[in-house]
Amino acid sequence: MPVRAVPAASPLGMQAPSISLPLMFVVTGLLALFTGAVWLVAQPDLLATYHYNQNTIALTHLFVLGWLCSIVMGAMYQLVPVALETRLYSEKLARGQFFFHVIGFAGMVWMFRVWNMKQVGNFGGLLTVGVILFIYNIVRTLLRVPKWNVVATAVAAALVWLSLTVTAGLLIATAKYTATIDLVSRFNPLSAMHAHAHLGVVGFFLMLIVGVSYKLIPMFTLSELQNRRRAAGSVILLNLGLAGSVVAVLIRSRWKPVFALVIIVALALYGRELIAILRARKRRALDWGVKYFLTAIALLVPTTGLALVLSWPGLPLNTFTGQLENAYGFLGLIGVVTFAIIGMLYKIIPFLVWFGAYSRHIGHARVPALAEMYSTRLQAAGFWTYLGGLAAAVAATLCSNAAAVRWSCALLALSLALLAFNVGNILSHAVRPRLTPLAKSSTNRIAR
Amino acid sequence: MTTSALNETVILETLRQVIDPEIGCNIVDLGLVYGLAIDGGAVKVTMTLTTPGCPMHESISWGVKNALLGLDGVTDAEVDVVWDPPWHPSMMTEEGRRFIGARNF
Fold this sequence. Notes:
Radius of gyration of chain A: 22 Å
Strand content of chain B: 15-25%
CATH superfamily of chain B: Fe-S cluster assembly (FSCA)
Number of domains of chain B: 1
Number of helices of chain B: 3
Number of helices of chain A: 15
Strand order of the largest sheet of chain B: 1-2-3
Oligomer: heterodimer
Structural class of chain A: mainly alpha
CATH architecture of chain B: 2-Layer Sandwich
Radius of gyration of chain B: 14 Å
Helix content of chain B: 25-40%
Order of helices and strands of chain A: HHHHHHHHHHHHHHH
Largest interface: A-B, 51 and 42 residues
Largest sheet of chain A: none
Order of helices and strands of chain B: HEEHEH
């Protein structure tokens, strides 16, 4: 028998950030992801031909700023306090950042598309104001951390790389329309762009994935960090490898493969620690959210393999090398980072909605578990569809086959539609909570 | 139910209605309840959560309080969340272990 959702008093002492804050970022991110997928279906040559053109750069910024940054920043406002056992410094600043972020990235994507670099710089300036607010807020939150650990180190490092990424992006954009920034024009424009991309993707997104998962994976699988020194080593090496790689890419140094290897060693340490955590877990079954995440981490193997090949100094600069670069970027962004984030979204969105819809009713009525708020069948179907679409898209990219890119991206879009359906299922709990009466007698019974 | 009927069994049975929404298992079989103190109509529960900084912290402790205050005879309910000793999966009951499909015990 359903129970009417009656308002109850708030939990005492509840000071968690309002769920609408991360949800604003999450919804914006999902809209950007769907737009990007449709864009690729409509214009598959963006992957099937070399990437140094205005549309590919616009689409990449839609994925990176609109989808990934929106989700990651929104999730950080929720997860950093959780992972570091403290509270967010200011929700008001975070809401201010959202305003600058959305106007900034939307304007940048549009202006990249029409190749108006002066306006890219102006909208980039707005985005930067948001990033400054974000960094300030998270730094102040980090300063409240009671006990510094590997997670806090990774988050702090990610903030440093983010600030360098944004600075580099602004310098590159400004150098396109003014001759006053002589520093940037000394470098090859492609090298500068690739260094900027690695700063952001490895420094911000991958650094956070590695650091935060040292807290979240043990939490979701009922396990513990197995070797703190190994975990710390992975974060330190990732930072050192990235610092060397960025300089090597920028100046086209022959040392590129050496620094790529340092990053690979860092990720191998990370993989070993994850395997140790999983082996020690007490929860036998891995849920699909965790499976998405771990599969994304496994995709680091082909991605870093491609990175090593592309870092080789004697690599011929021909059409196939260009397609290898496309496949590398696609696999990194849409494979590793996006797939990992979709897995974590299946944890974050149910939690946010559950918190808003059910936390006041727990103890008064039977409330659903997080996994009961969406369809695991759709989630599994989305997993396989996405993997199929990703593999096909990478193969089609390597073959420069636009038609195959279109169909494989359509498969990716189908997977995202399944995700959207499940997100709709989850959000429906906010509108119509499913409450049932508490059982009268439940000795030795497991509530489920 | 009268105050005199309040005992550990009744309270634990009531607390089995409160679940950890991430795991889906109730807090008693998860081994999160460390102790109960009953003094007339006043009940104090000492409990923990699976991980420090758990985002469900306030919700679950609030749910425990709600569930207790819903019991006839309970006039006051206090929930004390502690981190020492830290929770470990070995604290789960057999039912809890079966529910999560426990391994490595």
